[in-house]
Structure formats: C-alpha cells, structure tokens
Amino acid sequence: MTRPSRRASRSCRPRGIPSTRSTTSWPATPRGRQFLRELRDAAVRGVRVRLLVDDLYAGGDDEMLAGLAAHANVEVRVFNPLPVRSGGLRTRVLLSLHEIGRVNRRMHNKLFIADNSFAITGGRNVADEYFGRSKPANFIDMDALLAGPAVRALSASFDAFWNGPLSYPFEAIAAGQRPTPARARERFAELVRDLGRFVPPANELDALGRGPVGAQLARGLVELVPARVRVVADAMVQAPFASDAGGNSGDVGNVGDAGEPQGREGAVMAANLDLFRTARSEVLVVSPYFVPMPRMIEALAHASREGASVSVMTNSLATTDEPLVHYGYARYRSALLQMGAALYELMPASEPHPAWSDTENGRGSLGRLHAKLAVVDRRWFYVGSMNMDRRSAHCNTELGLIVDSPALAGELADLIRRVRVPASFAVSEAPRRGGLQWSFLRDGRRWVLHREPESNWAQRLRWSMLSLVVDEDFL
C-alpha cells in the first residue's frame, strides 16, 4: 500500500479508458442489486466494466446478469459454469456430480479494481449480510484498500482469470430464452429501481478509527499507510482439478510465473504457511472456517517451538453458518491445544454492535465471523479470501495480500485482542474432568461450560456423524 497523490487517484488505464473490474459472488439481495446498478451507471458514464462471477451461486441471477451485459461498455463472464444452470443450487450441484472433479474447483477470489489505481480485496462478498443490512445474522469481515504498484499485480491476476479457459462469456452459457438487448436493459432497470442507496454516515469511523473512503475520494486525496505488499494468487487451472500445483505471486507489483508444487496446497496457503514459520513472538490467525491440514499444524507448532504465542480465532457452533465445517475443525482442537495454541470461538453477540466496526444497523443481529486474517510478530499480516481450511488449500482458487507494515499489523493485533477476544469463548482442556471447556466473561464474572455452547445432544450427534463421512477437502 502506498500513499497516493492526487494525480494517482485520477489516473486511467494506458488506453485512456476508465475501467472497473470485479470478481465476486452474491445472492440477488438489495445490496447486490445496488452494486450491479452502480456498475450499470458507471458504464453509462463511459467506464469499461468487466464483471467475473463464480457460477456456483450465480445460477438464479441470469436475468440480472443478462440485463447488465446488454449495456454498452459492459462484459460479464462466468467462472467454471456447472453443466446445469436451471433450478436451485442443490439441484444444480446434484445434477453436476458426474463432473465433480471439475465443478468442485470454485473461484473464491474477491477483487474490485478501479482505473488501475485503487483496488479492494479481502473476504467480503456482495450481499446484504456482508454490509450489516441483514437479519437475523450479519458477517464480520475485513478488506484492504490499496493503491500503488500492488494494484498492477492484482490487475494481472484478474486478467489471467478473465482470459483463462474456465471463464465463459455470459451470453454463451445463459439458460432459457434470450430477450432482445433492449428488453434485457428494460428488465434490468425494473429490477434495480426503488432500491434506495446505501451510503454510510459521513462521519462514521471504521474499526481502526479512519473515516469513510467516499469522502476522501471526493476530496481527491485518500489516506493510506505506506507498506510493502506482496500479492499472492492461486493458479486458475490445475491438473487434476482437485489438486493445486501452486500459483502466481507478485511482490509490490509483479505477478510471477506459476510456481512448483508445494505439498498439495496452492500458492496462497503455501505463502501463509511460510509466513507462520518465520514467527518468533506471536501468530494470530482469524478464520471463519478452520480445518487445519498437517502442514498447517506443523507450521504453527514450529512457531510455538520457536517461542511464539499462537492464537486461533474461529466461529463457535453457535455462530457458524457451516456446522459441518465446525465439526471438521472440532476434531483438531485437542491437538492444537496440546501444541500450545490458544483457541477462541466467537460467542453469539451479547454486545450491542456485533461487528468489527460499530454500526447502528448491526444492532440485534447475530455476528458471524467471515474475516480471513493472520498477523505475525505485529509486523506482517495476511488478508484475503482464503479460509484456513482444506477446501481453500486444495479446491478453491484464492487471492490475498501479505503486507509488511508494523503500523497496520499492530493495529490489527490490537483490534483482535481488544474487540474480538473478549467476545469469544476461550477453549481449553478441562482439568480433572477431561475433555474440553469453554470459558467466557459476562457481567464481570467468569463462566465455564463443559459442553459445546448453545447446542443439544441431537445436533452434536448429527453433525459429528456427518463430518466422519464427508471428505475434509469438501467441507
């Protein structure tokens, strides 16, 4: 990340055409439709818009995508389309099982680039629950805004996916009858009408105490922190699909060639494991879905042996939206504790603002962890799309940043310790009783539970049995 000048904030692509590029996924929620409307409005202003979406959750959005694609200056492509496009998600997946080796590789990258000058990447999808606008649950997420040479590395990653063999023009795979372009545009206008506009309050600060980016853009000067940034991206196509043979990485602006295999994990996971092995004082890992493979346990154990304190934060069974994944993680809790790691599981929100940043609209909703973050020695941090689990390592494509910045890393470490740890169960081995216990503070008192919080025996039996028969790479 670099501190951009006024000129940098207004620069264009070499051809002189302003552009917007995005890789994302969303359900057709008001915020998702607002996002598409903003892209349409940008295209009307003459901006070149390229939208790349993963097909897994895009099957029900054909009408919206067709309407957007019918506008001048807009191109829409779909990543690795399923053989069946009609019907609900479950139906489409079941009817695609004959090609499971291919369709199990999903694009999990999240990336937005404007004019090759600014980029946003992290863990957030585009839907109501990722912006504190959903009931009863909202996701707690983390992104990074970048300018400078790293944006060019992200652009190169986008171009590799956009031009790759698994990305298809939307028009080539759309299901059903195709309306005329004029009718598609009319229908799009109907679908995005009367949405209102989600704009954060002008004086609202984020969790790190910084003001809204929109106001800074309007002034022509965005407040950023100078840092050295490495962009790490998995390769799009692997052989076979279920494995990962490395990927691309860029150090302050350069995207390199595909790397050699490092175990079976992709480039983003391999970079994180390498980062963990360098730790000498502290490793903080935040991941909503945490199913560690042996190489991750070894990397964290190595950090612990070198004298680093290791802490892992993930969802509890009471806050996760993927209970099967939680039980995949649960079988590793004892091993992690025995190697010296501290485990924290997010509690159902008892505080009024269950999010990284305090927003009035977040009140009363269940906070679910979705941020993917790691901080090492209060100097380096990782932020991106990759969960610390086997699916992200072996099946999905992922994108992330490894940032060398004591200032930012220290702020993130303090945020985790100050905001999230007190709102989490501390998991430990129960003395004398055996097994595990979950302790937490409430109203100035320390409470201890001796069974999985907010669950009953039937739920625990059901999900634990299912977790035994589902391959961890599919969790």
Provide an overview of this structure.
This protein is an alpha+beta fold. Helices cover 30% and strands 22% of the residues. It has helices spanning 6-9, 30-44, 62-69, 89-94, 100-103, 149-162, 170-173, 181-192, 213-219, 267-277, 294-305, 323-330, 333-338, 390-394, 406-420, 457-469; strands at 19-24, 48-54, 74-79, 111-114, 118-122, 137-140, 143-147, 167-169, 228-234, 247-251, 282-286, 309-315, 342-346, 366-369, 373-376, 380-384, 399-404, 424-429, 436-442, 445-449. Strands 10-9-17-16-15-11-12-13-18-19-20 form an 11-stranded mixed beta sheet, sandwiched between helices. The protein has a 7-stranded mixed beta sheet with strand order 7-5-4-1-2-3-8, with helices on both faces. Helix 3 crosses helix 8 (181-192) and helix 10 packs parallel to helix 11. The longest helix has 15 residues, at 30-44. The protein is globular. The protein starts with 5 loop residues before the first helix and ends in a 6-residue tail after the last helix. Mean pLDDT is 84; it is low at 1-16, 239-263 and 350-364.
- Structural category: alpha+beta
Radius of gyration: 22 Å
| Average pLDDT rating | 84
Output the number of helix runs.
Answer: 16
